[in-house]
Amino acid sequence: MTMKSDESPGVRHLREQRRAAADLGAAPVIIDTDIGGDPDDALAVAAAARTLPRLALVITSDETGSSFGPGQRARFARVLLDALQRAEVSVVEGCSVGDTRYYCVDGLVPDGVGRQPTGVVDAVRAVCERASGPVCWVGMGPLSNLAHIVEHAPDLLPRLSVTQMGGALAYRHPDRAEHNIRLDMPAARTVLDAVADRRLAVPEFVISDVTWNQQIAVDSQSRIYRALTASGAPSWATLVARHLDRWFERFHPESLQHDALTLSVALDLPYVTSGPVRVVMDEIGRMRRGREQEGVLLRLSVSARYRPFMRWLTRTLDPATQLDATPKAG
Q1: pLDDT average per 10 residues of sequence, the chain (330 residues)
Q2: Closest-CA residue to 165 (of 149, 146, 148, 151)
Q3: Taking phi first (over 0 means left), then psi (-120 to 50 degrees means alpha), and beta for anything else, what does residue 266 get?
Q4: What is the pLDDT of residue 176?
Q5: Residues 6 or more apart from 252 whose CB is under 8 A from it?
Q6: pLDDT at 101
Q7: CA–CA gap between residue 199 and residue 201 (Å, rounded)
Q8: Helix residue ranges, H only, the chain
Q9: At a CB cut-off of 8 Å and minimum separation 6, what does 316 contact?
Q10: Prediction pTM value
Q11: How far apart are CA 299 and CA 2, in angstroms?
């Protein structure tokens, strides 16, 4: 859904880019995720794996470094995708931004699952070479991997249509930037510079102002949790439920579905309303609305229909719902 606005040059440029990407319904999907911390990443990846034959690549970021050993998020992503019978989806260990306390899938990955390949540029290039049109990039963590593409493979940027979870105009902690921006603020600045220079098409940011809402919380009483823990649930559901349990025990009694809501925007589902906004980022990554031609033109989420979204997500993640994401030949 799109807010009506004036036809300034910046808005016309944005509108032209969106029209050029009109065939995104057939575009391969790349998910960039810091899976293994807050379980909303795992729920979003599972939803994509269960519904999208065109899911092509999962890249991890914010790898765990010396705390748990490198590459652990990518190993978990591989196990989850295999349990979902999506072994053909590639997993690549991406950029690390240092140690983090938000990691709670230790012990859930069998010892026999080795480290996943590295090489973000090669993996993204391979997806682009197989596609005839745009490629859908869904960012669920820091912007480190996207900034890596900006710096090391700028020729790929015109192929990418980016939807990113992160940023805020009125963050709940006014003294700091939103989490995904804060994790790697230089990367966020690199990406916004590429947008300002028109090397990268205007991305859509699903901001914390919209995603931080109790209506999209999953806890131990939620229908999604009950479906994942039902008798006879498949291995992927049990894995995600164990991940949720660890999050509830170690960090918070619930998980807000920031990333699945972002996925719904990338899939052009009718749950989030967005519009063009000029954004200025300060020296510590906080965002504010720019004045007139100040800042970088982005698309920002402004509202969401939370209940219909949660109905979609619940149905998608219910193992009893028969879904077929098998890639079709040709």
Answers
A1: 42 43 73 96 98 96 73 96 98 84 91 95 97 96 97 98 97 93 95 97 97 98 97 97 97 97 96 96 95 92 98 97 67
A2: 146
A3: alpha
A4: 93
A5: none
A6: 78
A7: 7
A8: 9-20, 40-51, 72-83, 120-130, 144-152, 179-183, 185-196, 208-211, 223-228, 235-250, 258-266, 306-317
A9: 47, 50, 51, 323
A10: 0.91
A11: 10
Taking alpha carbons only, the member of 288, 305, 304, 298 closest to residue 18 is: 298
For residue 325, give the 3-state DSSP assignment: coil
Cβ-in-10-Å burial (0-12, 13-18, 19+) of 249 comes to exposed
Q: What is the DSSP string of 170-202?
A: S-SSTTS--HHHHHTHHHHHHHHHHHHTTSSPP
| Token pair belonging to 84 | 């979902």
Torsion of CA 174, 34, 265, 192, to 10 degrees: 60
pLDDT at 121: 98
Structure tokens at 172: 């709940």
User: Both tokens of residue 248?
Assistant: 């509830």
Half-sphere exposure of 325 (CA within 13 A, CB side): 24
**Cβ-Cβ contacts under 8 Å for 14 (sequence gap 6 or more):** 202, 276, 297, 299
